[in-house]
Design goal:
Layout (H helix, E strand, L loop, with lengths): L18 H5 L6 H9 L5 H34 L3 H49 L3 H6 L2 H43 L1 H46 L2 H9 L3 H55 L5 H22 L1 H19 L21 E9 L5 E10 L4 E5 L6 H6 L9 E6 L2 E2 L5 H6 L1 E5 L9 H6 L7 H10 L3 H5 L18 H15 L3 E5 L7 H17 L1 E5 L3 H5 L3 E6 L2 E6 L1 H7 L2 H8 L13 H6 L11 H4 L1
Parallel strand pairs: 3-8, 3-9, 6-7, 7-8
Antiparallel strand pairs: 1-2, 1-4, 4-5, 9-10
Helix pairs in contact: 3-4, 3-6, 3-10, 4-6, 6-7, 6-10, 6-11, 7-9, 7-10, 9-10, 15-17, 17-18
Length: about 625
């Protein structure tokens, strides 16, 4: 049952759809049913066994009621002690067998349900892994997890409860009706007419109590809301500062009074419901006794007390199945809605996938070319417009620009986290859409500002990049990332736990471990996406010391706010509003007095080293040539 959907009032209280469920009832089509049963097909043998168990169990469950007639007629009335003992023992044995078969049926049913959810979870997880980055940035993470967990878990209850309930209740009803007609067709007809007529008042009573329960819950939520708002530290402070104590008390008192009144009505509705239930369930047997007595006394001498007792017992056995089947529409709609929600996710097309003729080159150099690339996230608002540039193997490019200009989007197109709307991104002359995805992503290493480490040890996170890496390989990568000194001084060294998402480490430590992970991966192209933007100056310096050798020796793309990182690039691209507005070297861009100059004066210049006199970097920034006389950077600035 979905959250918020509540039944009411005991076994015959009935189940009802909420207004939201009524408004969003799924359309049940043959295609939907066929798709649902496709998950049951691999377990058809087990399902047949469940069906046999349900039939036998239903028969054995009703058999003691029939045997009761024999106990009365053959044992008690005829005063046959042996017959009495025989039928009592038979009744106990049949009851035990029914219970044992029920246990077997439950086990098989649960086994089927667990395996079907196992299949669905695997299918869902595999499908979600193929989704593009767009899917995860546009969909709520909680909703994704809900589909994977509670929605698929709900399938178990559909199979073990809804489907099996339909079968067992239908079979129980059929067997009970057959047994009643075999005893006496007149009393059987009376019973058939009585059962559905008596369920109508109980359903009405249940609906009334369900309505009161919902209303009471809403008022209870209102009371809790008032308490949470006004009794919190901030809420209490606000109440006192505005002198609203009496106002808030009045608001709470009114809501509390409404809740008390509804609780009393709900309690009494439940009491009246139980009166209705017990009354109507008692009238049925009384009518059968009356009709049976008339037939036995005046018309049918073959009808016995035992027969009437059996018919009354069978009538009692029919109440629950009939009520359950009358409620089946609610269970059915909820089950179909559950499957529809799951299938909605299965039907989301895979946006980024391997081409049928995907290639895996043997020779890799690392040339990247953007040609007239345009891209939008939603198909309407363009994020990138006619982007053109070439990154030659062994070279580096820095991409700078205001926030939201499209810098990260550019680099995300290289490993195909997204696909271009038009134009091409090529890797060594081949459109990335034609390359094998696993091969392409193996060639690209990304270090972003939002470092993510999996729960586990430092070793686990490093081996994620290269499962066969040796201890020496990992230590070497940590040295290059300027983090080995930290790891070496930990008690467990490489086996140090990083905590959930790396929370046991500082931001700088996490970032350097992620750099070590990329170094261990040994990609053809390194991408540093503002890898130091959110760190303190000490951590930033250590990370910069790790990045600099990579920039000088590897093909790389840099998105950075740090001036020294930008200056280390062979070319600087200035991006604004999704276009490359300027490109060139640092000095060339400064001389244009355009966007780059503005960024430099408002942002980059703050990153200059605060040292006395001019460093070599500052000399370069201000255009000094080798051999020139030193100058006072502060005065010149």
């Amino acid at each position: 049952m979905p959250p918020g959907a509540r039944g009411a009032g005991g076994p015959m209280g009935g189940k009802f759809l909420t207004d939201e469920e009524k408004a969003n009832q799924p359309k049940v089509t043959p295609a939907l049913l066929k798709r649902i049963f496709s998950y049951l097909r691999p377990y058809s043998k087990q399902l047949m066994l469940v069906l046999v168990c349900i039939i036998v169990s239903s028969f054995f469950t009703l058999l003691p009621s029939i045997i009761t007639g024999k106990i009365l007629d053959e044992g008690l009335i005829k005063k046959d002690f042996n017959a009495l003992i025989y039928y009592i023992v038979l009744s106990l044995v049949v009851t035990l067998l029914a219970s044992l078969i029920g246990v077997a049926e439950t086990y098989i049913n649960t086994w089927i349900a667990q395996h079907i959810t196992f299949d669905m979870r695997n299918q869902m997880y595999s499908h979600l892994q193929k989704m593009s980055q767009r899917f995860f940035t546009t969909n709520n993470q909680g909703d994704i997890i809900t589909r994977m967990t509670s929605d698929i878990d709900g399938v178990k209850s559909v199979i073990t409860s809804t489907f099996s309930s339909i079968l067992s209740n239908s079979i129980t009803l059929i067997i009970a009706m057959i047994a009643m007609f075999q005893k006496n067709w007149i009393l059987a007809l009376v019973g058939i007419v009585i059962v559905p007529v008596f369920t109508i008042p109980t359903r009405q009573a249940g609906k009334r109590r369900w309505s009161l329960t919902n209303e009471s819950q809403q008022v209870n939520d209102e009371v809790n809301g008032i308490l949470n708002e006004t009794l919190s530290v901030s809420g209490q402070l606000l109440v006192k500062l505005f002198g609203k104590e009496e106002y808030e008390y009045g608001r709470y008192e009114r809501a509390n009074r409404r809740m008390i009144g509804l609780n009393i009505k709900e309690s009494m509705a439940g009491r009246w419901f139980r009166v209705v239930l017990s009354t109507f369930t008692s009238i049925g047997p009384m009518l059968l006794y009356l009709a049976g007595g008339i037939l036995m006394m005046k018309y049918d001498s073959d009808l016995t007390i035992g027969d009437i007792t059996v018919l009354v017992a069978l009538l009692g056995r029919m109440y629950m199945p009939v009520n359950s089947l009358l409620n089946i529409q609610v269970d059915w709609i909820r089950s179909m809605a559950l499957f529809t929600r799951i299938f909605d996710y299965f039907d989301i097309p895979v946006e980024i996938e391997n081409a049928d003729d995907a290639v895996t080159p043997t020779d890799v150099t690392g040339n990247v070319v953007f040609e007239h690339v345009c891209f939008s996230y939603d198909g309407t608002k363009m994020i990138l417009n006619d982007i053109n540039f070439t990154l030659e193997a062994g070279k580096s490019i820095a991409i700078v620009g205001p926030s939201g200009s499209g810098k990260s989007t550019i680099v995300n197109l290289i490993p195909r986290l997204y696909d271009v709307d038009s134009g091409t991104v090529t890797f060594d002359g081949t459109d990335v859409r034609k390359l094998d995805l696993r091969f392409l992503r193996k060639q690209v290493g990304v270090v972003s500002q939002e470092t993510y480490l999996f729960s586990g040890t430092i070793r686990d996170n490093l081996l994620y990049a290269k499962p066969d890496a040796s201890e020496d390989d990992m230590i070497d990568a940590l040295r290059k990332a300027n983090i080995w000194d930290f790891v070496e001084h930990q008690e467990k060294k490489l086996d140090t736990e990083v905590g959930n998402r790396g929370l046991k480490l500082s931001g700088g430590e996490k970032q350097r471990i992620s750099i070590a992970r990329i170094i261990l991966k040994d990609p053809t192209i390194f991408i540093f996406d503002e890898a130091t933007s959110a760190l303190d100056s000490i951590s930033e310096k250590k990370i910069q010391d790790a990045i600099d050798p990579i920039i000088r020796s590897k093909t790389s793309i840099l998105i950075a706010h740090r001036l020294s990182t930008i200056l280390a690039a062979d070319e600087i691209l200035v991006v604004k509003d999704g276009t490359i507005a300027e490109r060139g070297s640092h000095r060339e861009l400064l001389s244009k007095e355009g966007i780059y100059r503005e960024l430099y004066e408002t942002q980059f210049s703050r990153a200059l080293p605060e040292e006395e006199g001019a460093t070599e970097l500052e000399q370069y920034i201000w255009g000094a040539q080798p051999g020139d006389e030193p100058f006072d950077a502060e005065e010149e600035h």
